[in-house]
Automatic annotation (TrEMBL), chain A:
<feature type="repeat" description="WD">
    <location>
        <begin position="340"/>
        <end position="381"/>
    </location>
</feature>
<dbReference type="InterPro" id="IPR013923">
    <property type="entry name" value="Autophagy-rel_prot_16_dom"/>
</dbReference>
<dbReference type="GO" id="GO:0034274">
    <property type="term" value="C:Atg12-Atg5-Atg16 complex"/>
</dbReference>
<keyword id="KW-0175">Coiled coil</keyword>
<dbReference type="GO" id="GO:0000421">
    <property type="term" value="C:autophagosome membrane"/>
</dbReference>
<feature type="region of interest" description="Disordered">
    <location>
        <begin position="65"/>
        <end position="92"/>
    </location>
</feature>
<dbReference type="InterPro" id="IPR001680">
    <property type="entry name" value="WD40_rpt"/>
</dbReference>
TrEMBL record, chain B:
<feature type="region of interest" description="Disordered">
    <location>
        <begin position="1"/>
        <end position="46"/>
    </location>
</feature>
<keyword id="KW-1017">Isopeptide bond</keyword>
<keyword id="KW-0833">Ubl conjugation pathway</keyword>
<dbReference type="GO" id="GO:0000421">
    <property type="term" value="C:autophagosome membrane"/>
</dbReference>
<comment type="similarity">
    <text>Belongs to the ATG12 family.</text>
</comment>
<dbReference type="Pfam" id="PF04110">
    <property type="entry name" value="APG12"/>
</dbReference>
<dbReference type="GO" id="GO:0000422">
    <property type="term" value="P:autophagy of mitochondrion"/>
</dbReference>
TrEMBL record, chain C:
<keyword id="KW-0832">Ubl conjugation</keyword>
<dbReference type="GO" id="GO:0034727">
    <property type="term" value="P:piecemeal microautophagy of the nucleus"/>
</dbReference>
<dbReference type="GO" id="GO:0000422">
    <property type="term" value="P:autophagy of mitochondrion"/>
</dbReference>
<keyword id="KW-0007">Acetylation</keyword>
<comment type="subunit">
    <text>Forms a conjugate with ATG12. Part of the minor complex composed of 4 sets of ATG12-ATG5 and ATG16L1 (400 kDa); this complex interacts with ATG3 leading to disruption of ATG7 interaction and promotion of ATG8-like proteins lipidation. Forms an 800-kDa complex composed of ATG12-ATG5 and ATG16L2. The ATG12-ATG5 conjugate interacts with RAB33A; this interaction is bridged by ATG16L1 and promotes ATG12-ATG5-ATG16L1 complex recruitment to phagophores. Interacts with TECPR1; the interaction is direct and does not take place when ATG16L1 is associated with the ATG5-ATG12 conjugate.</text>
</comment>
<dbReference type="InterPro" id="IPR048940">
    <property type="entry name" value="ATG5_HBR"/>
</dbReference>
<dbReference type="InterPro" id="IPR048939">
    <property type="entry name" value="ATG5_UblA"/>
</dbReference>
Amino acid sequence: MAASTTPVDGQFWRSTLILRLQNRNKSESYAFKDLIAFHNRLFESSNALRAENLQLSVQNEKLRLEHSASTDKASSDNSGNGSSKSPNRNEKVQVLEQKLLSLQEELTEMHRRKGENAQQLVDLNLKLQEKERQLQSKEASFSECQAENSSLKRDIQDYQTNIKKLENLNQIIRDEYQANQLAFAALEEKLRKTQDENRLLVERLVRYKSKDADKMNEDNENFLSGGSHNTTSSLLHTIDGLFSRKKQAKVQKELEDAAKESRAVSPESTFGDRGDLGANPFFASNVPSKAISKFEAHDQEINAVKWSSLERLVATGGADRKVKLWDISKGGQHESKGVLVGSNAAVMSIDFDSTGSLILGASNDFATRVWTVSDHRLRVISSEHSGNLRTFLCVEMGEREKRARGGFISRRFPLRAAPAGAATRCWSQLSPPPAAAGSSWVCRRRQSYVLSSVR
Amino acid sequence: MADSADSPVETPESDKTLETQSDREIDSVPSEPPSTSGVADSPSKAKTNKIDILLKATGNAPIMKTKKWALDKDKKIGWIIDFIKKYLKLEPSESLFLYVNQAFAPAPDQIVRNIYDCYGSDGKLVLHYCKSQAWG
Amino acid sequence: MANDREVLREIWDGRVPVCFQLDSSEVNGLQAPDPYYLMVPRLSYFPLVTDKVRRHFQRYIHPDKHDAEMWVDFNGQPLKWHYPIGVLFDLHIPEISLPWCLTIHFDKFPEAELLHCSSREAVESYFMSCIKEADVLKHRSQVVSNMQKKDHNQLWLGLQNDKFDQFWAVNRKLMEVGSDETFKYIPFRLYQGDEPFIQRLVKPVTEEGQRKTLFQFLQEIYAENASKVKVTTHGVEPPSDTPLQWMSEHLSYPDNFLHLCVAF
């Protein structure tokens, strides 16, 4: 860059300055520059040489060592016992050999250990395999046990169901037994009745016989009296009377025997009966003309009235959906014993059972209900009428039918509804009867029915 | 110097430092005459050898209760730095930077006179101090 | 504008021969180390050029001191590392016979006289601080604050690696003048023996608008003693009629200050 901008009058000071600077550089810088550069070079090279020297001396030392080692070896190899260095060498060699030996021993030791370790490894592997096998067998047995367990559980279940079945069966058998008992009782009753009848018949026979005997006696007397009129006839009559007396005694004896026989059949005495027989024909039957008691039982019309068979209870069923119980035992008084509720429509028909403890009501709501008389609780509802139940026809029952019905109620078999449109249908808990036998309870061993007429 | 001890001080709270300053001034007395001998006597020089410095904290540095201090012009910047450190109870290892004009950090051996001559006015010099390099 | 490349180049190329010697009391061992000779740039700082020296002498000192801070003295006077080498040299010119023999120390660091220099970064931050201060004086800090970090780095690396073009590519911006062709103030430091240097606000032009010469400048500082004053910078005595503005542009050290050594 030229000093173009420097002022003209500045040329002098500037040139002076430059000159001085140049002089400065000449004296300070240039004079020493080469020298110091040279010095630095020398310094560096000397440093480098020093380093090299060090390296070389180290190398030299190494080489010398190697050399001496080799010569020693050679000398020891060559002379063996001769040279002065050889004992030293030998010692060294011995030391080294010993070291080698120990190292070899160590090596063999290591090898042995390695072999042991390998053996151990193999053993452990075998053990592991065995354990695994054991584990597998354990698992198999476990699963077997589980299977067995489940099968046993199944068995238990089966047995339990079996037990239940058996219990059911037992129950049925018991029922059957009860029914049989009932049948047996009924049969016994029948037998008694038959015996009574027999007794009555025997009595009648005895009576007739004695009548005959009286007649005969009368005839004989008549004959005897007639003989006086008529010798022959009176003689005859006397003979006849003689004979007839004999005959009479004989007949009397026969009759006594017969009476004895009949007494053997029936415990009741023939003679006691004779009085009864005399009273029996005198029953007074007159038409009721005057009401003992009159009361309003229901708010609406009364559809059904029923006497209880045991107590002096009357049940009424009304259009006001109620069944009411009345005690009329005290003459003209009446007393409400309870109101049986539950019907949703007018009660059309009611009936007591034979024991008087249950009451059955048929309602226009298509349901039939059973209450207990003692606590007025609703026991059974059969609401399966599909028709409009107007009348409930469930009337008389024999002794054994009533008992059977007790069984039926106690087992709480549901009542079956009659399909709509049928005039008369049977309800059965087991099977329908082959033919409905009128409006009555029928019990045939294990079958109970309620018959109702449906309009 | 006797005159420095008598010199009027506007800041009463700086009494303590005044004492320490005067102690130290006695040390620096012998160096004074030669320095002034060559330099032309300025009227201000004759009047007083003291100036006020205003110390302002910057950045994260704690604030000093007393900002204004009367100071001998011959003190070095390093002395002020040490003084602030001591005043703020900083660890010796902690660094503290002083800035002039919020622009540059004077060398610790720079004397206050030079800084005041160039950047101060009316007997006052504003210095900012900081614990990290601010305008660095 | 600093465009007198011839002068700048001469200034840049200024080197001084130095002979470093280890303090004999610190030698650890029988053999004293050889002195280490080096050409050091006047514009540089000691911590930037003494790496090799340190390596060389480290071998001869006590191992405990290997990592200790190295410092330099001349004739028993510790040399401040934060002054450019040229300034240190010029300060001691009367006593110096070339090469400049300096003593290296690793022990007994003179805490009172020297600042610690932990690393090159300490030098860099001091250097940059000087540049900023100079710019405050010259341009009210306008130029430096508009520079980017990489420009700062380039300045520093140019100085550190002795790269004239690299340095001046950025430094010329710092030497730019405003519309009035001058700086606001001239950044300078006047050294005089052991005294702390003097730094004042001095304008490059007189009140009449004339460019100040070196002599006028000295008059401003030293009044009637100005004629007795002998100013040295960069190892030379600039003519007293040299314009102050031109001096600042061309004879400033890399830290942008004119470092003038004064003797009577």
